[in-house]
Amino acid sequence: MTAKHNPLKLNPLQLKTLTLLQELARHEQSAGPDESGNIRITALPQPHGDHFHLAESVVRAADATGLRNEMVWNALHRKGLAICSFPVSISLTPAGLGYATGMREAILRSGGH
């Protein structure tokens, strides 16, 4: 990755987590706007076996370990991408919603079982 593609120098786990949070933010079953205009995510998917479903996509549980990792949430907060209330909710800021992770196609796979 070049610095232009990942200007905040997020590590791979942070990039994967942000990608999944961005996808969760698109679905009203898991997220909605907060009083500051950020998108608050309050429902995280529960894996079954080695994967979970996120809308029409299937995600490997191994790609989602950051969703319940306080250190990852705090890193996203420090970089201005999220506001955290671990473990209850995480809100993506406009910067977090718009950050190009380059990971979407790699971790959000279409299809069922």
Describe the protein's architecture and organization.
This protein has 113 residues and is of the alpha+beta class. Helices cover 28% and strands 21% of the residues. It has a four-stranded antiparallel β-sheet. A three-stranded antiparallel β-sheet has the order 3-4-7. The relative contact order is 0.24.
User: Helix amount, in percent?
Assistant: 25-40%
Q: How large is the share of residues in beta strands?
A: 15-25%
Give the total of beta strands.
Answer: 7
Q: Going across the biggest sheet, name each strand in turn.
A: 1-2-6-5
Cα-atom Rg, whole angstroms? 13 Å
Residue runs with pLDDT of under 50 for 5 or more positions: none
SSE arrangement:
Blueprint: H1 12-25, E1 31-33, E2 39-41, E3 51-54, E4 57-60, H2 70-78, E5 82-85, E6 89-92, H3 94-98, H4 104-107, E7 109-110
Antiparallel strand pairs: 1-2, 2-6, 3-4, 4-7, 5-6
How would you concisely characterize the structure shown here?
The protein is an alpha+beta fold and 113 residues long. It has helices at 12-25, 70-78, 94-98, 104-107, and strands spanning 31-33, 39-41, 51-54, 57-60, 82-85, 89-92, 109-110.
Primary descriptors:
4 helices; about 110 residues; 3-stranded antiparallel β-sheet; 7 strands; alpha+beta; 4-stranded antiparallel β-sheet
